[in-house]
Amino acid sequence: MVKTYSLENIARKLNISIKDLNKAFKKKIIREDEFKNIRYLLFKKNFKNIEKGTVVILNEQLDIIRGYPKTYRALTLYPTIKEHFIDKVVIEEKLNGYNIRVAKIDDEILALTRSGYVCPFTTKKVKKYLKLEILDEYEHYMLCGEMIGKNNPYVPFYYEEAENDVENLAFFIFDIKERENNRSLPIKDRLKLCENYNLPHVRPIDIVDKDKAHEVIKDIIIELNNKRREGVVLKDPDMSVEPLKYTTHFINCQDLKEAFYFLFDLGLDFMFSRVIREGFMSYEFGECLEDREIRAIDIGKSILFPMVEAIEKVAKGERITEDFELIFDSENDFSEFLDFMRKMKMIIKIKNIERKEDRLKVLIGKVYNKTSDKIKAYLEGALWE
Amino acid sequence: MVKTYSLENIARKLNISIKDLNKAFKKKIIREDEFKNIRYLLFKKNFKNIEKGTVVILNEQLDIIRGYPKTYRALTLYPTIKEHFIDKVVIEEKLNGYNIRVAKIDDEILALTRSGYVCPFTTKKVKKYLKLEILDEYEHYMLCGEMIGKNNPYVPFYYEEAENDVENLAFFIFDIKERENNRSLPIKDRLKLCENYNLPHVRPIDIVDKDKAHEVIKDIIIELNNKRREGVVLKDPDMSVEPLKYTTHFINCQDLKEAFYFLFDLGLDFMFSRVIREGFMSYEFGECLEDREIRAIDIGKSILFPMVEAIEKVAKGERITEDFELIFDSENDFSEFLDFMRKMKMIIKIKNIERKEDRLKVLIGKVYNKTSDKIKAYLEGALWE
Question: What is the ipTM, given to two decimal places?
Fold first, then answer.
């Protein structure tokens, strides 16, 4: 692989100095990767004005696909929303999947994960399920959205609306951005474009005044919680201020369950933040003692039960895995995906393969070694420091 | 304060090289402190063979008081105890107070906290409540024990057996060590000495074969849990291997309550470790679903309720404090204690003072600024990153 490219041109495109660019290389903030014949640089962290997940394609014009910015969280609805927004607030549902940016570069559709890798699995699915003429006409746009459903290798979570003949998987656009400067289209324009091009997209639940938003959103959150869904993203109609997110009790507990099943692999911050959210929600929603007790019971069970389940599993001699059922259209797609997993340094175990016509249905286990090893050690008498 | 002392002599007494001693000074592992006219060096961390909390008195003979070693924890009773011990296991109750070493240096009784500071409050109380002739005869011993009861500035936890006419505070010896080399007396010898000198001490609950210990201890733990007590420390009769500890569900939940009341001050490790203990206990005790649910409810409530209580308190404009009621025998004792708190960089607030005869009853609040400030910020609309 030839590794020469003009640092000067890249720095100019990214609007940083050559010195800073070199620094980013030295600190290993930038890594080089390729997908098919497309080589690209990838920012593994936020650096200067450049978002984590930003990609510079090493073609002649050095096309850029900027990283999707972090969405901050409101711990309280009031006064956070009132303080943050200008006037009106658009309420959209937050879907529980994985963030994807779709762009077209040199006639090739690419689907990038949050961290900036071109995911061959997702790229295939996006091309299969979406008609992407929009990117012929608006080559400088990227379609940002959530890939949801049970049959994906990142966040397997069932959605009714993701169901099709073959699998539970779908892509919903929630943002269209200029891929070189990360500017979002106003929400109206995004909705119009999605409708014109017949693209699946997230629709606003409501548009409200910022002063009343907390009341409306509280009701929406309660409803979404009852439907076992994740939460909301709040946006300025013109996308002039950054969006905010707020999630349901249901998803906080789901996250806790996951965290305590993979208890030595997921970070303490992950666990702690979910619990904190529950505290502020319980306070803000002004629960009666009975409701607060129900919330506490949910939290306690979400922590204890998955943990004991994991310990019991290891005690039986098994290892802790997270299982994904994926559908591939060919052996070649499957092997491409396995190469990608290897590149991502995921340790996976193929648990089952079913072939139907040309299609493959594969059950894959992502192995959580740290959790498996540590539980085993403690069960064998290792001391806790 | 004259700061000259012979590094060579100190290094020799500590059995480390001068080079290492200098390194410890440079890395600020050693700090200098004084109590009355006694100057001493203090190890703030484990360093080489020297335990955290080790003190070198800067007198002519450079007396040493070694730090009390960390007691490791069994996450499972079986097979941990069987693997760890030689033959017999002495089961003692673990009291929930603070670890103190008492030594006599140059005719002065000193009570050192775990971290190695001479605590004026504790020194006074130890001298008041104990007859310490033993240290005249055995000048090279230190009495290691737990200071327990509601009326102390570190771990205010009520014990029936700590009650006296004036306050709820008592000292129980659980170990006698040679203070210069940290060698423990065999348990029999410790018990005999304590009885001869009429010193309050922790008595063995039972002595069992290591192969059966887990069964006996499980029953003891269930009983201690019902009595709302902390747990057990397991020891080799000759103190030839390090002790182990194991705690009750009750105290795990107590710790969680504390952690989530002071939610941004106590470390995540503190919270996480308590929860992990519950997981292994629930597994090992082979609970039925009903009992496991009760445990989960206790955990959930111990997390959510104190957290909401703290948020409600801050929402009302108050700050989060931990309150201690302390008894001082004179104004001078009180002011000495305040100086010590200042030195420890504790932020305290005097909430009330009652004077009775010569005695002072003082209500002191330890202020948790980080918790107070962060909750306030989130209530005012700060975003969660």
Answer: 0.94
